[in-house]
Amino acid sequence: MHKDEIKGSATDVKGKVKEAAGKVTGNERLEAEGLADQAKGNVQKGVGSIKEGVRDVLKK
Predict the structure, then answer these.
(1) How far, in whole angstroms, is CA 25 from its chain's centroid?
(2) DSSP assignments along the chain, one per residue
(3) CB under 8 Å, gap of 24 or more: what pairs does 34-42 form?
(4) Torsions phi, psi of 10, nearest 5?
(5) Cα–Cα distances in Å, from 54 out to 6, 34, 48, 49, 60?
(6) Measured in Å, how far apart are the chain's first and last C-alpha atoms?
(7) Rg of the chain's alpha carbons, rounded to an integer?
(8) What pLDDT, in 10s, does the model give residues 35-58?
(9) What is the distance between the alpha carbons of residues 54 and 47, in angstroms, rounded to a whole number?
């Protein structure tokens, strides 16, 4: 697992917490920030997966 995948997962979880907190408190800005963090985390996880795949191919 690449470090970007780990960081992306952490950002995704942070976003889910923000989104839930925003929904519970009625804070639309916090909810939107949570959704943005989730998107950022998913992109970062994808980049990490690509890097890991390239590294595996180069090892062969």
Answers:
(1) 23
(2) --HHHHHHHHHHHHHHHHHHHHHHHT-HHHHHHHHHHHHHHHHHHHHHHHHHHHHHHHH-
(3) 37/11, 37/12, 38/11, 38/12, 39/15, 40/8, 40/11, 40/15, 41/8, 41/9, 41/10, 41/11, 41/12, 41/13, 41/14, 41/15, 42/8, 42/12
(4) -65, -40
(5) 17, 30, 10, 9, 10
(6) 17
(7) 15
(8) 999 999 999 999 999 999 999 899
(9) 11
Share of the chain above pLDDT 90, in %: 90
